[in-house]
Amino acid sequence: MERTTYLYVTVPRTSSPTMVKTEKDQGFMPVRSNEDSEKVPDVIEESDHRGNWSRKLDFFLSCLSYAVGLGNVWRFPYVCYKNGGGAFLIPFAVMLFITGIPMVFLELSFGQFASSGVVSIWSVSPFFQGVGWAMFIVSCLIAIYYNMIIAWTLYYLFASFQERLPWSYCGDWSSENCLADHAVMYNCTFHNGVWLNETCYHSGQVNESYFNYIQGLANSTNVQYTSSSDEYFHKVVLDITKGIESIGGVKWELALCLLLAWTLVCICLAKGIKSSGKAVYFTAFFPYLVLTILLVRGLTLPGSKEGILYYLIPKWDQLLNAKVWKDAAVQIFFSLSPCWGGLITLASYNKFKNNCLFDAVLVSILDSLTSVFAGLVIFSIIGYMAHELHQSVENVARDGPGLAFIVYPEVVTKLPVSQLWSVLFFLMLITLGLGTQIATVTTVHTTILDTFTEFFRPGKRSFILLLSIAVVGYLIGLSFCTQGGMYVVQLFDNYAATYSLLFIGLIECLALSYAYGANTFLDNIELMLGRRPSMLWKISWSFLTPAALLTILIFTAVDFDPTSYGDYVFPTWAEVVGCFITILSISAIPLVALCKVVQGLIRLPNIGLLEVIKMMMKPTNEWGPRLKEHRELMKVSPDTYESQRCMMLNDFSSERS
């Protein structure tokens, strides 16, 4: 059966539609006149209103600042030493090239080619538009709870300006088991003494019978001492309850810090990417400056060498452990932050001819090197802490909030001019957090702008939308400011962007590789780069990366651990709520696909279900570069817009009648 090919051509203005018949045509089709063509720039040249990056460096630093976040400092070092130290760098590097760089390149090139937000960009395959909505929901969830971490950091920053760091001593707020300096107690027991009631007893100081009595009393009481920094964080900053069942009241000091965090985000995004592109010069470079200063200072401390060696010495037997490879893949995937929508959004403001391949590779490698570098800084300090406490590094090392708000604050109390080191450290955490938060909120903002262009683009409505996002985010975030807010943060952290991201990434890869076509996607990239990327990218997107993501997803599900915080294990109902948080985003994928199919069946009742699904998987007329001159570069195959053929035929029939 001969293929019917329809072409759009530009002809002089006419008062009625012009019909053109191609060589193998079976009928006539209306074509665009100049009058119609003149209307197109009003839509596709809207990037003048949408904006572009002022400089290429603005985009690159935004991507780097987005990728390099708090996880590089407080998660990677702990995961590395726990999984074989230096040996962990091998699976880490392998997974960087299997899942990390391919996903980053895919999303940067995808966003740059279409210059659209994460939802509107799925005109490439409307059946999978739910992937965009899933990314949007994930970004909303992350933006809400991530700012709470910045709020805690702001609280500590302000506390660092006091004459005496408030966590350096046991105040009125502390319990009877509070110990300001654990080094004194550990030094006592290290030298065969007995510690009881904040007093060290040695056999030479008292008679033997009394010493044995003291020793027996100390063993029987089994007091669990806590550091002043630990009690300050949990009793003063959080005033934490016993569990998520008791949420408690709002801590207004934290509520004000959260308000300030959202204010900072709004200031950075007040003029869209024009202002955020300037903010990233600080949020991208300042953390490296502080990390370098802290490393130099850390290397001068006793015990730092042992800490770094513990971090880097390879344990080769760990390479045979499948869990190590799973942790490497998870760390790479979540460190680079694909599937949040941020990479697509940032790239959508790029110039069409930007070399996104170079950006993808460089950002990915720098992010990974930053993680390793941050590990040197953290373990030099942890080594010093272990030396002071006469403990092994393993007993001192912690990750997550425990490192940022307990271990490091305790370390700075032992340094001269401790306020200076405290201010530098928490300023660094704030800039790391803001870099990621700015890109995440930009994703939410841009998605709404691109989806409801006619309403939000004109005048100052874009900024009003930004303020609305901040207000809603702040009001929901007040739940994190309660006494049980830490438990809510942990629940969001465990479920908002774990399983959902892996599933979103898997569907995204399959949709672009098979529904749209990896070869066609490489054609699109060739238009931007001026050369065709290697076929290795097609192999990665079509086979390696989806297989790796599916494996990680299965391993993560099998290796499931109930959510916990310290010794507290979350109840079953809380885990159910967490599962709902995960389902909230990924459910958008099948629900939107179902809606598209139903719409297609209603619009084209004479076509079967499978035909409608096939049509919905193909690009619409809106797919392609935003600017007209770039759209004309596209080499469109005859069946690219096959999904639109029936509708155009219907339009033509109505014109003739």
UniProtKB/TrEMBL annotation:
Q: Where in the cell is it found?
A: Membrane
Per the record, membrane topology reads: Multi-pass membrane protein
The positions annotated for binding Na(+) are: 67-68, 72, 335, 432
Record GO cellular component, one term: plasma membrane
Q: What InterPro entries does this protein's entry cite?
A: Na/ntran_symport (IPR000175), SNS_sf (IPR037272)
Keywords of the record, alphabetical order, are: Disulfide bond, Membrane, Metal-binding, Sodium, Symport, Transmembrane, Transmembrane helix, Transport
Give GO MF terms, alphabetically.
glycine:sodium symporter activity; metal ion binding
From the record, give the transmembrane residue ranges: 88-110, 131-158, 279-299, 328-349, 361-386, 420-442, 463-489, 495-518, 539-558, 570-594
Q: Which cysteines are joined by disulfide bonds?
A: 170-178
Q: Which domain of life is it from?
A: Eukaryota
Q: Which family does it belong to?
A: Belongs to the sodium:neurotransmitter symporter (SNF) (TC 2.A.22) family.
What is the name of the protein in this document?
Transporter
Which organism is this protein's natural source? Biomphalaria glabrata
